[in-house]
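Let us practice reading a record.
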Amino acid sequence: MSLSFFNLTGKVALVTGANTGLGQGIALALAEAGADIAAAGIVPADETGAKVTALGRRFINIDANLMSIEPVALIVAETLSGLGGLDILVNNAGLIRRQDAVDFSEKDWDDVMNVNIKSAFFMSQAAGKVMIGQGSGKIINIASMLSFQGGIRVPSYTASKSGIAGITKLLACEWASKGLNINAIAPGYMATDNTAQLRADEERSSDILKRIPAGRWGEPSDLGGTAVFLASKASDYLNGAVIPVDGGWLAR
């Protein structure tokens, strides 16, 4: 296999929540491999856009609040009109709320589930219609260690990320025969805004680090290689997989 199998030149990737953190890291990795980037989210991805265009790739920003599925069709339409195609979808946009299960509110449940699983499914559906029509496409869902484990104080996040693993497999079963690849990345404990509260808790952060064989929190750039692999021809026979990128967390 030559390195050309990982080349994304001429491909268009739509990444939700690409303004910072994991989404930004993935968008930049895809751009470095040759893809043009559409970023969709409630916060403008200006910094990401500047870095993508500095690499010589095209970039568009799409203003969309994925707390509901209302903007889904518009996101896909703007990607097609702005960049001329849609080859890769990364369902990265995510939300987390922390509270003991005994006190967890319905609003915190619904907000997290709406962004993390409902919007991810309907984004996949809308992109899937385009990809099925063209006979090819790559969908990358962002799962979590909590797709495999229970966690604590994050009931809706755990439920949503378990759901991500499930719909990844479901869509692979339905769409693999149509030329699509649907897989997921399960990041370990990453240094992002979502984990700021954990990293600020010295005792909890220390406990987490002791469990990670790599001995450090992950960085958004650590997902780049796996994302490029899953977006490229190199992964054409991989479907329905949930790949941990966790510094060895699950191995311990």
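A brief commentary: The chain has a mean pLDDT of 96.
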